[in-house]
Amino acid sequence: MSTTGGTNDAGTEQLLPEIDTSVPQSARVYDYLLGGKDNFPADRALGDQIIERLPTIRPQVREQRAFLARTVRHLTAEAGIRQFLDIGTGIPTAGNVHDVAQAIAPSSRVLYVDNDPIVLAHSRALLQGTQEGRLAFILADLRDPEAILADPSLARTLDLAQPVGLVLIGITHHLRDADDPRRIVQTLVDALAPGSYLVLSQITGDFDPETMREVAAAVEQDGIPYVVRSKADTEPFFEGLELVEPGLVPIVAWRPDPGTEQDPRSVSAYGGVARKP
């Protein structure tokens, strides 16, 4: 993707596979729940089923977006991170990783990864970076971390010999236990330099088990993996890393902006930021 500023590569060497809009896709359902327009009837139908079971889902996904902004802001402004690998990025909207990071450090570099070709198409058209920074997008699946790490766009965009912020927000619940999600995350972390950080959020049933079981069943019925995990099941993602205060907590309790404090259990997700020693 060419833009008026910076160096940007939205996977122009990748051909778009055929897109089946008759079945829902997680990035497009998320876009619908955020109030976006880049979705189709199947995505909206599943989104409406989720809303029926969990009426607070729209403010909850907005809180997940706010968690993303706070964590990236922390890594850029306080930890000095200047490059990010964001997997499961979703359709571009306000407050993308590069928007937050480059507003603080214009030279920041970001590689976006998603497995939805519609996300790739929109990224080509919409992602705009700074003159000093660099953006790229690759079409790939988190379940194949080796392919992500081997993609030429990664080497062109990020220097893995220097610290990286690995962003896995709203994505690990789409990994089944059979996918070995702990190994997937560990493979990515192992490829990063010391001083890198992992940012991760995970949907949980700890606060409202019955409702989250119903939501998971509805999503799974449409063929999208949706695995809720307890705090104890989420902690292994951070093994071997140094959790940043306040640790692994409900996402709304992770360093909330002044005046935005709320019931930590109002959003059914845990999140944390951890440093690779």
Task: Give a short synopsis of this structure.
The protein has 277 residues and is an alpha/beta fold. The chain has 10 helices and 9 strands. The protein has a single domain (7-275), classed as Vaccinia Virus protein VP39 (Rossmann fold, 3-Layer(aba) Sandwich), CATH 3.40.50.
What does this structure look like?
This protein has ten helices and nine strands. By secondary structure, the protein is α/β, with parallel strands linked by helices. It has a single domain (7-275), classed as Vaccinia Virus protein VP39 (Rossmann fold, 3-Layer(aba) Sandwich), CATH 3.40.50. Helix 1 (26-33) crosses helix 2 (41-53) and helix 3 runs parallel beside helix 4. Mean pLDDT is 88; it is low at 1-7 and 10-14.
The CATH superfamily turns out to be: Vaccinia Virus protein VP39
Q: Please give the number of β-strands.
A: 9
- The level of helicity is 25-40%
Overall 3D shape? globular
Question: Judging by the overall fold, what is the CATH architecture?
Answer: 3-Layer(aba) Sandwich
**Can you tell me the CATH topology?**
Rossmann fold
Report the top-level CATH class: Alpha Beta
Low-confidence stretches: 1-7, 10-14
* Proportion in β-strands: 15-25%
Domain count: the total is 1
**Rg, Cα atoms, Å:** 17 Å
Order of helices and strands: EHHHEHEHEHHEHEHHEEE
Report on the biggest sheet: 9 strands, mixed
Structural class: alpha/beta
Give the N-to-C terminal Cα separation: 35 Å
Which whole number gives the mean pLDDT? 88
Number of helical segments with 4 or more residues = 10
